[in-house]
C-alpha cells in the first residue's frame, strides 16, 4: 500500500517548503511549458490509463503526417492507451474535428516537441497526486477555493494568487506479522530491507482490503464476513456499526439512487448532501417562476435579450465573462431557464437589467422527496418543513433552503452486524475510507434490500468528485441579441399569462405578484 503527501511551494516565488497532507482542495492544472521530445518520453513520464484521468492531451509544434492523415501543429491530441501493434509499441490517440472523433496510432519512436494542452477540468489533490504529476517533474496548480479549504491560509502571503508547485512525497503502508495495526514508512527513511517473501507464510500477515477492493469482487463471492481494521473517520452515524474490531456481514454490492443537493446561501460556504430517495422529510417546492413584463435588449451577445411575455425559471446568481469595449469583463448575472413550448433553454440575464417580472406562485403543499422528483424536472429548490423522524439528526431541516441539482447513481455495499444481520445499511464505496480483513464466507441466507439508508453530508471535494463538475460560469454559450417586439399592455399580458401558466408543465398556479424594475412589489 502506498500513501502520498504533497510538498507544496508557493509559485513562482521560492520559499521554504511547507509539507502538508491535503485532506481537501480543488484546483486546476497549469499547463507545463517544458516540451516532451518524443512520444516515448510521454509514455515514460505521464500516467496513461483506461479512465478519464488517464487520457492526457498534448499538441505538437510541427505537423505530423501519418499516411492519409495529417495532424497540423497545435491540434489537440488525446493519448488514450499504450499497446503493441505488429511488434511495435504504439499509443492509441484521438482528435476531434467538427464534433467527429478520429482515431489513430503514434509509434513511441515519433519525435517532436509535444506540449501539454490547457486543462479546464477541476481536480482534487488526490487525483492530481495519483494521475497528474509526471515522473521527474513538478506540477503547478491553481486552487479554486483556498479560503474555504485550507487551515493554513494564515501562512500564505496576502498577494498569494493560488498557484502552488507540488512535488509528491511517497510513503509505504505496511503490516507486521501477527499484528493488526498499520505502520507508515516514509520514503526518505534511511534503512535497508531484505525481501523474505519466499521464506515467509503470507497467511500470517493481515490482508487489508478497501471498500473498492470488496466492490470489485464478483457477485457470486457474496455474502462475506469481515472484521473492521480501520473505521471511517468523522461519520458518527456509522461509528457504532463500523468501528475497528467489529465483525460485519457484507451481503452484496449494488447501485442506488441519490439526489445531489446544495444548501442555498448567498456566500460560498455551501454545504452539500447526497439524499436517498427514501428520505421521509416533507418539503415545500421553491422554484422561482417569473414572466417578463418589460422588454430588454442586451448590449452583450453572451447574454440574453428579453421580450415581453418571456417566461423563466430562476436558477442561481453567478458571474460571466463578456466583451466590453474590446476587453473581457466579468459581471454578475442570473442563470435561468427560459420556458419554451416543449423545452427549456439555459440563458443568462445581467443583474443590472432594468425589467419588470410577474412571479407565478407555485403550490405550497408539503411533499416527500420522491413525490417531488417524479412531478418536477431537476434542478429545483425546496425547503424542508418537516424533518425525517426515522433518522437521529436531520441536518436538512436546519438548512434555509436546498437546491436539488441532479439524480445520480452510485455504488454501495449492503452491510450489517454479524450478530444482527437483518439490520442492514447501504455503505458508500468511494467516500468511506475504511479497510477490512475478510474472515470467511457467510453461509446463511442473506437479505436483499437495506433497512437503513444514509443521509450523507459530503465535502466540497467529494461534491466535485461525484458530479465531475466543470465550471462553466466563465464560458456561457454565446447567443446573438434579438430585437424585442413592441411592449404589450399589462392587461393583455396578464390575460395571456393565465393561459401560458396552465400550459407550463412545472407550474401549479395559485396567484402572482408583479415585480417592478427597481424591486417594487405590487400585490394583485
From TrEMBL:
The organism's place on the tree of life at top rank: Eukaryota
A Pfam family hit: CABIT
Listed GO CC annotations: cytoplasm; nucleus
Residues annotated as domain CABIT: 25-205, 222-441
Record GO biological process: T cell receptor signaling pathway
Annotated family: Belongs to the themis family.
Name of the protein: CABIT domain-containing protein
Organism of provenance: Sphenodon punctatus (Tuatara)
Amino acid at each position: 500500500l502506498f500513501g502520498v503527501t504533497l510538498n507544496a511551494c508557493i509559485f513562482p516565488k521560492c520559499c521554504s517548503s511547507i509539507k502538508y497532507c491535503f485532506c481537501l482542495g480543488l484546483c486546476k492544472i497549469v499547463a507545463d511549458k517544458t516540451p516532451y521530445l518524443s512520444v516515448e518520453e510521454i509514455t515514460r513520464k505521464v500516467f496513461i490509463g483506461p479512465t478519464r484521468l488517464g487520457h492526457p492531451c498534448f499538441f505538437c509544434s510541427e505537423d505530423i503526417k501519418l499516411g492519409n492523415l495529417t495532424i497540423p501543429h497545435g491540434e489537440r491530441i488525446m493519448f488514450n492507451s499504450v499497446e503493441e501493434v505488429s511488434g511495435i509499441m504504439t499509443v492509441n490517440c484521438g482528435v476531434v474535428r467538427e464534433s467527429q472523433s478520429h482515431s489513430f496510432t503514434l509509434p513511441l519512436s515519433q519525435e517532436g516537441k509535444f506540449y501539454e494542452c490547457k486543462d479546464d477540468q477541476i481536480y482534487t489533490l488526490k487525483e492530481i497526486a495519483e494521475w497528474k504529476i509526471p515522473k521527474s517533474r513538478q506540477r503547478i496548480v491553481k486552487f479554486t477555493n483556498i479560503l474555504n479549504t485550507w487551515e493554513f491560509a494564515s501562512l500564505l502571503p496576502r498577494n498569494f494568487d493560488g498557484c502552488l508547485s507540488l512535488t509528491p512525497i511517497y510513503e509505504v503502508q505496511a503490516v507486521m506479522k501477527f499484528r493488526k495495526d498499520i505502520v507508515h514508512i516514509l520514503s526518505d527513511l534511511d534503512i535497508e530491507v531484505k525481501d523474505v517473501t519466499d521464506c515467509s507464510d503470507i497467511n500470517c500477515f493481515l490482508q487489508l482490503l478497501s471498500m473498492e477492493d470488496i466492490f470489485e469482487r464478483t457477485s457470486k463471492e457474496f455474502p462475506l464476513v469481515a472484521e473492521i481494521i480501520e473505521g471511517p473517520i468523522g461519520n458518527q452515524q456509522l461509528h457504532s456499526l463500523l468501528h475497528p474490531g467489529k465483525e460485519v456481514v457484507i451481503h452484496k454490492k449494488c447501485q442506488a439512487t441519490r439526489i445531489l443537493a446544495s444548501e442555498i446561501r448567498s456566500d460560498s460556504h455551501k454545504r452539500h448532501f447526497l439524499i436517498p430517495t427514501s428520505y421521509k422529510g416533507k418539503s415545500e417546492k421553491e422554484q422561482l417562476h417569473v414572466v417578463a413584463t418589460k422588454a430588454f435588449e442586451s448590449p452583450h451577445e453572451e447574454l440574453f435579450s428579453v421580450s415581453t411575455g418571456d417566461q423563466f425559471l430562476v436558477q442561481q446568481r453567478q458571474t460571466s465573462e463578456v466583451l466590453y469595449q474590446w476587453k473581457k469583463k466579468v459581471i454578475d448575472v442570473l442563470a435561468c431557464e427560459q420556458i419554451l413550448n416543449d423545452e427549456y433553454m439555459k440563458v443568462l440575464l445581467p443583474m443590472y437589467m432594468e425589467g419588470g417580472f410577474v412571479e407565478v406562485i407555485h403550490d405550497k403543499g408539503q411533499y416527500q422527496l420522491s413525490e417531488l422528483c417524479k412531478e418536477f424536472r431537476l434542478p429545483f429548490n425546496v425547503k424542508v418543513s418537516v424533518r425525517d423522524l426515522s433518522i437521529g439528526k436531520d441536518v436538512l431541516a436546519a438548512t434555509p433552503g436546498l437546491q436539488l441539482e441532479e439524480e445520480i447513481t452510485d455504488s454501495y455495499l449492503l452491510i450489517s452486524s454479524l450478530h444482527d444481520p437483518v439490520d442492514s445499511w447501504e455503505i458508500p464505496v468511494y467516500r468511506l475510507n475504511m479497510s477490512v480483513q475478510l474472515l470467511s464466507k457467510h453461509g446463511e441466507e442473506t437479505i436483499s434490500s437495506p433497512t437503513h439508508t444514509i443521509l450523507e453530508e459530503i465535502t466540497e471535494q467529494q461534491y466535485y468528485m461525484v458530479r465531475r463538475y466543470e465550471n462553466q460560469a466563465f464560458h456561457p454559450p454565446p447567443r446573438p441579441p434579438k430585437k424585442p417586439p413592441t411592449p404589450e399592455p399589462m392587461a393583455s399580458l396578464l390575460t395571456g399569462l393565465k393561459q401560458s401558466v396552465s400550459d407550463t408543465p412545472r407550474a401549479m398556479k395559485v396567484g402572482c405578484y408583479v415585480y417592478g424594475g427597481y424591486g417594487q412589489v405590487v400585490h394583485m
